[in-house]
UniProtKB/TrEMBL annotation:
InterPro entries recorded: 8ODP (IPR003563), NUDIX_hydrolase-like_dom_sf (IPR015797), NUDIX_hydrolase_dom (IPR000086)
Protein name as annotated: Oxidized purine nucleoside triphosphate hydrolase
A single MF term (Gene Ontology): 8-oxo-7,8-dihydroguanosine triphosphate pyrophosphatase activity
Cofactor requirements of the protein: Mg(2+)
Role according to the record: Oxidized purine nucleoside triphosphate hydrolase which is a prominent sanitizer of the oxidized nucleotide pool. Catalyzes the hydrolysis of 2-oxo-dATP (2-hydroxy-dATP) into 2-oxo-dAMP. Also has a significant hydrolase activity toward 2-oxo-ATP, 8-oxo-dGTP and 8-oxo-dATP. Through the hydrolysis of oxidized purine nucleoside triphosphates, prevents their incorporation into DNA and the subsequent transversions A:T to C:G and G:C to T:A. Also catalyzes the hydrolysis of methylated purine nucleoside triphosphate preventing their integration into DNA.
Domain of life: Eukaryota
GO biological process: DNA protection
Length: 161
């Protein structure tokens, strides 16, 4: 039995830059990533995405400005959990990013994304995000630093069958 857990991952973007956060504790510590976390029981995915963005870097976004651009599924050798990550992008948002207990936010130019300090999978699917393509990816990790196998595909729509 595989336990499926839904997570959010939000990227704020403008013409020149993308906002990433350095995770200061817990899962993915010391890696740059988008903002997000577990969807709580009975919580809607979009509400969770808005909540985590606010909690982690004090930025506000409206649900209708979050565009679902991807779905990533992660499994780890020997673990019965599948992380089902819903990826969102937004170009309309309010606030100035602030450091919190969980994240240190920073804007990055598109040609200076710190892939060497990110999850290994990020550099495999970021090209889709950067080209505004929708994507689905599945990654099977051994530990946190080795991908045993993966697939990625471009999608025509994010609708679920
Ligand atoms: C394995 N390869 C991966 N590549 C890219 N991104 C990944 C990822 N694996 C997890 N993520 C994201 O990392 C965050 C974890 O969130 P995480 O800290 O566990 O959640 P949450 O804040 O609810 O936890 P606590 O409340 O601290 O337990 C969450 O956005 C999730 O989408």
């Amino acid at each position: 039995m595989i336990l499926n857990k839904v997570y959010t991952l939000v990227f704020l973007r403008n013409e020149q830059q993308i906002l990433l956060g350095l995770k200061k504790r817990g899962f993915g510590v010391n890696k740059w990533n988008g903002f997000g976390g577990k969807v709580e029981p009975k919580e809607e995915i979009l509400d969770a995405a808005v909540r985590e963005l606010k909690e982690e870097c004090c930025m506000s976004v409206r649900k209708h400005n979050l565009k679902n651009i991807g779905n990533l599924q992660f499994t780890f050798e020997g673990e019965a959990l599948m992380m089902d990550v819903r990826v969102f992008s937004a170009t309309s948002f309010v606030g100035d990013p602030e450091e919190t207990e969980e994240m240190l936010p920073k804007w990055f130019d598109y040609d200076k994304i710190p892939f060497e300090d990110m999850w290994l999978d990020d550099k495999l699917w970021f090209p889709y995000l950067l080209k505004d393509k929708l994507f689905y990816g599945r990654f099977h990790y051994q530990g946190y630093d080795k991908i045993l196998n993966y697939t990625i595909q471009e999608l025509n729509s994010m609708e679920r069958k």
